[in-house]
Amino acid sequence: MKVEGFLVTQDLIDAACAIVVDMGGGFTAIDMEKALEKSGMPSDKSFRGADRILQKLRKGGHITFNGGRWHFI
Q: Is 24's pLDDT higher than 90?
């Protein structure tokens, strides 16, 4: 997937997801944004990237929103 011209690879998505899973107790969009930055995504594109990834994971049935936090199913 491309976000504002930056190619977001599946490896980058997997690395960011691993970071938020390790946090335990669910995560927020800001947590995903910071995880993307740690995984190599430019900070000026990470907000939109986090939004796109959360949409993809939600539509794919991989996450659910409960109590103000996202949780992997």
A: no
CB-count burial class (<10 Å; 0-12, 13-18, 19+) for 27: buried
The structure tokens listed for 73 are 């199913």
Q: Where are the domains of the chain?
A: 2-67
- CA 37 – CA 35 distance, rounded (Å): 5
Q: What angle separates helix 46-59 from helix 29-38, to the nearest 10 degrees?
A: 120
Q: Average pLDDT, stretch 34-55?
A: 96
- What does DSSP say about strands 2-3 and 63-66: parallel, antiparallel, or unpaired? unpaired
